[in-house]
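Need a sequence for this fold. Nothing fancy.
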């Protein structure tokens, strides 16, 4: 495993963004772990988060893009800090953009927060975690409706490696196939389990094994 992946796993744990226990997901599933990017709370954590995203975007997608787009709400701070880190690390100025849940009809009007998307833009989407791919199905049409825009790729913090709605592929792979984009994660849950194999309790390991027997995607 690359060293930055292990560093990112430790970073999520130290920030209490990744936790093990008993959780109920939005889908109603009972999960033995939970990842919540809303718990990155201070300047240090946000700066480090941006650096991890910028590095992963650079490594996987290169520099040929103009905008980092993070859907409301958790994607907003990710897009901002990733754009800042991208300039700091690679010297390239990229715009940030997010969608509003409801279009604003006065002042700074429209559906976009930050940069409005325009014809010719090449966009990298950022999200916190992919479980079913539902969020992307809501966000992708918003981006494409803005004009002649190309989605270069999607970067998420954590790929849970759970089967997608289609029942055959992992959700993140299903997103890539459905929308014809390059979809990647800084780390996968398989890598988290490998990295923490000697550090988590046997009861947690058992809970993870049972969970992935039911919901896991084939490797």
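Here you go.
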């Amino acid at each position: 495993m690359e060293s930055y992946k292990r560093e990112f796993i430790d970073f999520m744990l130290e920030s209490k963004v990744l936790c093990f226990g008993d959780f109920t997901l939005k889908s109603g599933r009972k999960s033995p772990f939970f990842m919540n990017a809303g718990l990155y709370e201070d300047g240090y954590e946000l700066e480090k988060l941006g650096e991890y995203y910028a590095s992963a975007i650079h490594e996987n997608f290169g520099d040929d893009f103009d905008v980092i787009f993070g859907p409301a709400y958790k994607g907003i701070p990710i897009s901002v800090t990733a754009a800042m880190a991208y300039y700091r690390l690679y010297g390239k100025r990229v715009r940030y953009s997010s969608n509003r849940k409801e279009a604003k009809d006065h002042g700074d009007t429209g559906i976009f927060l930050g940069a409005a998307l325009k014809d010719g833009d090449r966009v990298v989407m950022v999200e916190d975690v992919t479980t079913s791919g539902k969020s992307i199905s809501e966000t992708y049409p918003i981006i494409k409706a803005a004009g002649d825009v190309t989605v270069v790729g999607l970067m998420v913090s954590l790929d849970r490696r759970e089967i997608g709605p289609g029942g055959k592929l992992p959700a993140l792979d299903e997103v890539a196939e459905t929308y014809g984009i390059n979809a990647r994660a800084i780390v996968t849950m398989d890598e988290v389990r490998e990295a923490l194999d000697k550090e988590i309790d046997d009861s947690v390991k058992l809970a993870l094994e049972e969970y992935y027997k039911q919901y896991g995607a084939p490797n």
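For context: The longest strand covers residues 95-104.
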